[in-house]
Design brief:
One of its GO terms (cellular component) is nucleus. With 360 residues, the protein is mostly helical. It folds into four domains: 2-33 and 207-283, no CATH class; 61-128, Annexin V, domain 1 (Orthogonal Bundle), CATH 1.10.220; 132-201, Annexin (Annexin V, domain 1, Orthogonal Bundle), CATH 1.10.220.10; 289-356, Annexin V, domain 1 (Orthogonal Bundle), CATH 1.10.220. Helices cover 61% and strands 5% of the residues. The radius of gyration is 22 Å and the shape is globular.
Amino acid sequence: MRTTNFGLSIVCSTPVNMSLFKDLFKKVIRNRKPDEDTVFVKGKPTPKYYGTVVPYPNFNASSDASILQSAIEKDEVDNDVIIAVLVKRSNEQRQKIKVVYEASTGKSLEKALKSALSSDLEDVSLALLMDPPHFDAYLLRKATKGFGTHEHVLVEVLATRSNQEIREIKRVFKEEYQEELEEVITEETSGDFTTALLALLEAQKDESVEIDQDLARKDAEILFEAGETPKEPMFLPSSTSCPNAAGRSSPRYYAAVSDISLPKALDLELNGDIEECLIDIVKCSWNKAAVFAEKLHLAMKGYGTCEDTLIRVMVSRSEVDLKKIIEEYRAMYDVSLQEAILMDTRGHYESVLLGLCGAH
């Protein structure tokens, strides 16, 4: 086995164990200048905000709870009012509304909306009422429960959350479902794919922002040479547990020394769930917003719409980087995300998605 400096390891066809992943996944380098996504507030560096949903000014939880109660209890449910409140309040504000609603009505807001709404509008509204760790835990539970496992959802969630977010997800998962997330992953997946997911769940990614461009260039050359060697057919990235690291720099250099991109090279060298996992991880490290833009595009491409993907991405990224995703979507597909939503969805469900885009 040879290990590259930015964490991508080229491994022969020998078995891959957990200690190998743990050891390698700590050696990653982020390809992002510290000042790109940072502003200074009162002299302190603060991450820029790329969400489309912002806290509602002059917020009043009691007033909003009363408005929602009236809209829900009308002879004909006022969907427009419900939507207006949910998409124009931050997640933190929605949590406060939930508490006041239950205190004043004796009912949970979730149950009230379940009885008042239906179909996709119900699903997206309930998703908006969950705080991020509960929503992520719910997504992972849904992806592993029942017939078949939704591997792409497991990778999407675990590869795009920070160390602290993953720790919170594991805590909430245990509280909500009385099972350890690691045990569920082990039961529902297999082989190298399981090993990669468990490594992600270690939440030990290197989240530093420094980078060594010379090392990244050398790593790309090593990767290219390894890809040309039949005896070394597998790429195992340490960036598996650091989706924001490594990938954007070395893939660029890889493209300079090879006729194909690094994600494409992974595609040629691997197969099965581990292939999809590592390709998604490299893509996320290269340009996370573009990955989500692609997911949204595929969800609305062709006949039928994958509502689960639309809801999952739009809700989970609305207070993270949906502005970036919208920009990437237009650049990649020459049409705005809002236009795509208008063409592919209808009614109040469409209104919610447009609202999350910031089109109030």
